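LOG
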Amino acid sequence: MHKVPVNVLRLPRGPDPNSRGFDPNSTRFIALCPTSIPASAGEGVGLEEEQRCRSELRERFLRTLIKMTNKPVNFDMYEGVQVQARFGASDIDVLNFQVSELQTPIGVQKEALLRCQDMISFSFDV
């Protein structure tokens, strides 16, 4: 199988002259990328218990990201697209994953950013 490099799509300059993308304080960013989920109302679960559970789940997720570093990862995207890449890092809000050697149906990209909102799931060998 012959692997063909794919060009990188560059995002337009954001409001900050040193970055690309959108202002995190804009209504569009806030609507599309909420950074927290409001606590459950009632339901018999106390706020402290919910916070403890969230903290534990967040820690597990972050440990998973650490274990994925420099490993081949399979990503299931919307529209039935499956891609493979070597995981590099995540941004602080877990909105994007930086990957290397991204293998897509149309070719291979040396370096890329995958938007987490476009992913259904990801898996890797431990």
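LOG (cont.) second protein
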Amino acid sequence: CWALPTALLCAYGFFCSVRPSEPFLTRYLLGPHKNLSETQVFNEIYPVWTYSYLVLLFPVFLATDYLRYKPVVLLQGLSLIVTWFMLLYAQGLRAVQFLEFFYGMGTATDVAYYSYIYSVIDVNLYQKVTSYCRSATLVGYTVGSVSGQVLVSMAGWSLFSLNVISLTSISIAFGTAWFLPMPQKSLFFHHVSSQHLSWEMKVMDCKNGSAVQDHPNVQRAPGWEDETKVPLNREGHSAEKQSMWERKVDIVKVLKDLWRDFLQCYSSQTMLCWSVWWALSTCGYFQVINYAQALWEMVLPSHSTEIYNGAVEAASTLLGAVAVFVVGHIKTSWAMWGEVALALFSFLIAAAVYIMDTVRNIWVCYASYVVFRIIYMLLITIATFQIATNLSVERYALVFGVNTFIALALQTLLTLIVVDASGLGLDIFTQFMIYASYFAAISLVFLGSGIYSITRAYRRQEQMQSRS
């Protein structure tokens, strides 16, 4: 039965996302509960999340598949419990840095949530279940942000109390995860042969629930993430009757296959183009959202006035979801105009970040942040569509993992140079000026590439017409 595991996983996703204290994290760390300095928080604590996420991503990617999802779902819940317990009671710089490591682990294990359900349901339920799982996290995040804002602004609750609520909600999620049935299949290590699966794969977009039915002879690519898409196997195949030992794949063989697929995937110019944008833009996106609260704190110190971080996070999430839904119904030739569109919207992102940095008004900062998130969510969805085309299940999972890893590697380098106290340790306003310049550079690169591609396409068309 698909209903029970789906309901349990959606409950887990909802409660895991209800964290009313998260939009006020910077204010909490700088306040009397932790009594940390701005330099400690911005330049010594926040970078730890980036480093830990990068280090854990690839091992978690393999462990999730090898352990068949559920143990990693439990690990995520446990990591978040440790994170919020330490937020409540840990004191001192080193303790909070250690806390950030566990938060990085919780982020890296997100993949297990988005990939679990497809190993225990029938393929014809992918679209419905995908929309349920994604909606559960969006609703949970929105409920957490709104409730946090209401409790702080109207009820006068302390940030410590918000962290207690967050810990309670995550603990409920962790308890729920124990009741999830253990899957018997996974993508790489415990799978049925691709010959049995090729006819039943679909492309699933987790942001809007849309699906594209595959041609019987073409395998397309599910994957996972904020842009999560995941494949799974149909029950009833004779391969399921094999013993676990027979279905296990040697890890060396898996790694060799991954390397071969990596070389084949990125030999495509179109794939390379969209993947480059994905990695570059995701690096900048992570950096901006990680330090947005720090910028707001410097623009308008929270100890002296009311702040509306929770409302802004909720609004940006909901409007971003609407934008993603709309773009799923836009029909255009992304193969022809995709690079120019990426250049244009990347420039708008650069403008939004620049305005956040230079116009020292909190409401302008809030509005620019909302625009920033909407545009990114829209573009990353388009990139997902383009990358998914004509890829097999395994190859999409690989491309998604590689692109995310490259984004984190770039972010780590940027953090080490710009943010970390052992590097330049720049102030927050200078950092955001660099981020705006970063997105402007992305825009120029793709504008040049787009103009070149369009010119070449028209010349090729003219040559074909002259020959005919």
